[in-house]
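[audit] Reproducing an earlier prediction to check determinism. Same input, same settings, fresh worker. If the tokens differ from the archived copy the diff job will pick it up downstream; this log only records the rerun itself.
[audit] input (417 residues):
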Amino acid sequence: MENEFKIIDGGICAAKGFKASGTYCGIKKPAYENPTRTHKNDICLYVSDRLCNTACVYTTNKVKGAPIIVTKANLEKSGGKAIAVIANSKNANTCNADGVEKANKMCELVANELNIPSEQVVVASTGVIGQVLPIEPIMSAVPKLVNELDYGKNNDAATAIMTTDTVKKEYAVEFEIDGKKCHLGGMAKGSGMIHPNMATTLNFITTDCAISTDMLQNALNEIVKITYNCLSIDGDTSTNDMVCLMANGLAENDEITCEGETYGIFKSALYEVMANLTRMLAKDGEGATKLIECIVAGAQTQDIAITVAKSVVCSSLFKAAIFGEDANWGRILCAVGYADAEFDINKVDVDIKSDMGIISVCKNGAGIEFSEEEASQVLSSDEIYVLINLNDGEASATAWGCDLTYDYVKINGDYRT
């Protein structure tokens, strides 16, 4: 994944032929009505000018949101084709007796306005679980969403999917295939309830590159494994996790139908976008003050490297130590040691790094002397890198997380009410 890409603006609208809109419709009414209050967008729509090959991955939680059930059924019926995505925040439409009915209704509303089959609509929801989704606000919003679709309104959509997020997450790149300029961009939401297995949070990615549905799905599966699946905020896997990737082919390159050089370029572009969105999600973890990036090298296999890296970023004790800016490296080695992977702990080296410097804390599985003053300076940064070398092979992997703070408990203590 060494290709060079030009970072561009536009998020889901960076690719040719994708337009978006977002608005506030009142899915979750405030506790009190204040006429001077500015409401945040809570529903969005984005549409392609041309029918797209579409690939998705979904949560593996046994409890699945109704939108996931409906989206999977729609794509099976359409043969992996979609042209529009509607998504709302504030209400997950999960564990509701009428959830599937409501999710289908959202697709039908969009389909009727766009004059397309409802199975060509992807639907997604995020927010509180177990509360009935009011459909009336959505019925009123859809005509407006369609009427206000525009190629430059990615920001309106990106803010509409935010829940406890403090910032919107967007990233896009430009690259070249067959002499044609291609674009790939996305938006993501998520701040808590993030511990993925085949998906994480809500993530929407668009491209104008021409690529078959099968190769699109293969690329998504492969890149999810080394990006979103290497992210953990709090150890809880959501019921509504989904990643949706749509390709409309408007870049007019020769369609990618098999592995090869052009497929490799596409995967590299997809990694560039998804890895950066993953990093943004980790840095904006609920209550977080610091990003943790754990890079494991010298593993026999990539799976071993992934397992060890995720074990570290998932450690509540280590996350708390990072919040306290305490170089308690024993918690790192403890997390490495209980990782479900085979390696020799007596070969493990650990360094801690930030923009303030780097300190070595462990060599050959044992602690080494270091300056607590220097360590405190390194840990004062808001981005902390844990560098682990297993000295056992050539494979490597990266995992992302954040510190564990008092505010995480505050946010989740009364999230529903």
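[audit] rerun output stored. Observation attached for the diff report: The CA atoms of residues 108 and 118 lie 5 Å apart.
[audit] end
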